[in-house]
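Hi V.,

You were right to ask for the full record rather than a summary. Here it is.
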Amino acid sequence: MDDRQCKRIGILTSGGDAPGMNGVIRAVTRTSINSGVQVMGIRRGYHGLYKGEVVELNARSVSGKLSQGGTFLNTARSEHFTTEEGLEQAAKMTKVFDLDGVVACGGDGTMKGAAALARVGVPVIFIPATIDNDVGCTDYTIGFDTALNTAIVAVDKLKDTASSHERCSVIEVMGRETGYLALHVGIATGAEIILIPEHPVDRERDVLGKILTARNRGKHHYIVIVAEGAVESSIEVANYIEDKTQIEARATVLGYLQRGGAPTYFDRYIASMMGIKAVECLISGSQNRAIVYRNGQVLDDDLFECLNMTKRIDEVDFQQAKILSI
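Predicted structure:
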């Protein structure tokens, strides 16, 4: 594909929503239009592509969207798309609407969907956006900074209450399989305990021991940050603490609160730069790429190689969090 052939690009958002997705749609739309390329918005992700829910976007369509959380193109999960028949139907729709490439924005599942489309001949560009920050090929995923700041504000408020009542607050943040959000929230809020899926929890050592040690040093309130995948129930953790220490403990699940809200500067900026890079790739004929953030730069890499990359919690960060919690 060369720049004379790239005349129309599709853009979709898929999986869990993340603050900054609208910034991606805006950047893809305006960069494309500036290059003489038409942009089609695909509603409801791969499900919408399968059903042919495609509308034209223009500069006005994306006006005022940069500061809004969520995704105005909506997102949905699709069982049909995961079947061979559904994939073929989705690929057929790219031909029906004469799309020369598709930009797919989302998390790991979205990247897998992008790779599936690429395998059946659809040129794709993947942009990582998930508050979990768990896409292996990139140092950063759009939405993480906003979710982090949202959680910090909530924890700070709960910390005030915990202090007033000499209470332990057990606060559950998102992170079913990875603890990036929990670790960084815990460090930023001065939590006594951080529980993440990557480290098996020894309740006597990691919970009871730390609470009692902190109490014996004169502390009267405590913050426990729990990634949702680290334990079966944050309520159970709170009950355990109260039962074993006689310290009043309350559990709070932040839940989907973390997904919403106006994107921070960093998410707006990275979303914009990644959107621009995605269009540049398609126009230059570089297809089946993943847009990544590495060492402070927005780059592109081979989609299929990126699909097999993984990343792990920085053990140095985890150990330093323990030092700060004493």
